[in-house]
Every structure is written in structure tokens, then in C-alpha cells.
Amino acid sequence: MPLVDMKDMLQHAYRHGYAVGAFDLVSLDFLEGIMAAAERVRAPVILSLAESHFEYFDFELVMPAVEAAARRASVPVAIHLDHGGSLKSAMRAINLGCNGVMVDASHEPLSGNIQRTHAVVEMAHACGVPVEGELGYVPGIEGEDAELHPGEVSYTTPEEAKTYVEQTGVDFLAVSIGTVHGRMRGTPKLDFQRLEQINEALGIPLVIHGGTGLSDDQFRRLIANGVAKINYYTALSDVAAKQINENNRAGASSGFTALVKNIRTVVAAEAERCMRLWGGAGRADEVLSRCRPWMPVEHLIIYNVEGIDKVDAETMIAEGRRVLSTIPGVREVFTGAAVQDDAKYRYTWLVRFCHPAVIDSYRKHPDHVTFADTLFRPVAGERISIDYQAVDPVLAELLIIT
Ligand code: 13P
Q1: Atom 9 in ligand 1: which residue has the minimum CA distance?
Q2: Are 316 and 375 in contact (CB under 8 A)?
Q3: Quick one: pLDDT at residue 58?
Q4: In this structure, what DSSP letter does residue 259 have?
Q5: Which atom number of ligand 1 is nearest to the Cα of residue 236?
Q6: Looking at the predicted structure, is the pLDDT value of residue 61 above 60?
Q7: The whole model's pTM is what?
Q8: Catalytic annotation on 82?
Q9: CA distances from 193 to 136, 154, 249 (A)
Q10: Selected residue with higher pLDDT from 223 and 144
């Protein structure tokens, strides 16, 4: 179960002087290619889903595949929402399975950015999920020519960064020091002195957006100055598009599968190059043994109702499902009635939390309190309630050995 706590993962990278690749994926070919690369070179990896790409795929449909890929991996994986625009999108991402979220309010003035980011941090931390904020502005759009979106770079300053991190509580900071999203002519000039000062002022893992197009030497200097996560997409998109064009030129039949043949291979090759260059290759086992596994919790209640009939019980249950499933960190609400007529307890709630932190925040959440006090507890006097954390025998063994 190599989904791991993303804060632990990036702290490890930060302390040991390498960076984890956060690769934006837009299809199953990308997902499989990125995972194949990580397995091949034994690197930790971040599967990143950018909100701006949600018009090309259905986030809700893709997430189960992303989670399945992470869970069957033998290398440590985190799943991250990239450039989330609101508190609502961060909540949705967590409830769908992301264990790291980015809130991008970098277009706002400092005070607005702080306010919006802080709200996301409060919610996400109550779910055990770390948050990446962004300060300063990295122009451009992933996958497109940077010249088409010529926004001004707004550089991060060390002073503002310190205020921002203190007042928001973010776990990682995306900084603007000269990179741009997307394809550039030439190599951008980066302000390493500024990066060094930011790193000295903050002492937390830093993030670089717009990884495409930087030189090997620039990557090394970024990592030497505190960058522990590198966001990368356009280069993957370009090798995939090139492969499609080649398939076409080589006379591939016009069928879809013929045109997309080998995309996984070329995406894997480019991701592998990055993992080696950024120093993550060969780190998988060390990271697995040092990072907390990301384990869900099942909140189980079995109960009987008294004083209401079956129809009223069903109405109460339906209302509970509606209310409880929107509480941050709740992945799923299962409600059931016993199959056996003679079962000691007739009804159950099985509420899946993304992380043990949710046990507490769920219990105190006003929507839970209201539902439990007014609709549930008055009719469910006889009940048993227990929280179960998932146990993974393979991982447990690994943690005991090391
Ligand atoms: P590139 O597309 O320039 O690699 O940047 C990716 C990125 O920063 C995603 O957040």
C-alpha cells in the first residue's frame, strides 16, 4: 500500500537534497508511463492532477484509476491536486482521494492570498492533508507556448514568503524565481540568489512550477537551494504528441489505438530521465521505511432504532448520507440494513475517513453534531461505534524491520 504521507515524502527529499517529480497526468497512458518510470528507477513519485485539465477528463472517473495505480505500486506515491482554485475544489479533491492539495491564489494581493490559503489549510489539515501554497506569479499555461500567454513574472520575495507561510501554515511553498509554465524559446534566467534567501528564511520544502525547458545545471542548483518538488507537464505532453505524429506519418491505420501506440513508452522515458536527474532514483525503499503510510479509517456504527417506524428510519438514514458525505475528509458513507432477520443490530453506518485526523474533525464538525444530536442519537439508543484503521501486512513488516 505505497500511498505515503506527502509531507513526510517531501521532508525526506528536502533533507536529503533531491526533488520528487510531480507529473501532471491527462490520460491513462500518462498514468501508466509515469508509474512505469518510477518502478523502473525505484523513485518516489507524485501523481498530479491539474484543475485546468479537468475539461479534458472527468476528475471523478480518473481518480479511482490513479488510486489503484498508487495502491498496487511498490514505490512510494502521493496524489496531488495541482492549482486548485478554491476551498471547494480542495475539499472535493481530498474526498476523491488526493493526499496533497495545492491552493493557487497567487493572482490575489498578499492579504487575499493569505486569507484564501489559510481557509484551505485549516480544512485540509483537519483531514491530515498537507497543502502547497504559491506566492508570486509564474505565468504561462502548461502544455502551450509560453509566448502565447505573456504574463509578467511576479517574483516571490523572502519577506513576503515568511509572512505568508507563518500566517497560512502551508507545508510547501511554490516560488516564482523566473520559470514559466509551458514551452519557451531558450532557457529562462533564474534568480538563484532569491531562491537561496527564501530557503534560508523558510526552511520548508520549496516547489518549482514550469519544470519544462530548464537545463540540467539549473535543476541541480534549484535542488541545492531547497526545491524538493518539481512540477512537470509540457515536456511529457510534447513527447506524447510527437509520438502520435510519428505513428501517423509511419502510416498507422487511422484507428485510435494505432495512433496512440507507444505513448506510455515515451512518457515513461522522459519521466525516468527526470527522476534520475533530480536524484529520486533509487530512493524508494528508504522513503517507504521513513514515511508514514497513508491509511484510511473506517468509522463503524451498528445500531437499532426505537420509537420510529421503518419509513422514518429510512428518511433519517437518507438525511445522514446527504449531510455526512459532504464533511471534509469523508470518502464514502455506506448505510445498510442487516441481511439476517435475527441480527443483533439492524442497521449500520460505515463512514470511510481519508486519514485518522478525520476521526476528531468529523466528530466536532457542526453538520455532524446537528445530525447526530437531533436526528440520530434520540432514536438510536442501542449502538456500538468503533474506528478501524486499515492494516497492511506487507507495509507493517517493512516498518518493523527498519
Ligand atoms: P510545465 O508544463 O512547464 O512543465 O509546468 C508544469 C507545472 O508547473 C504544473 O503545475
Answers
A1: 231
A2: yes
A3: 97
A4: H
A5: 4
A6: yes
A7: 0.94
A8: yes
A9: 16, 16, 46
A10: 223
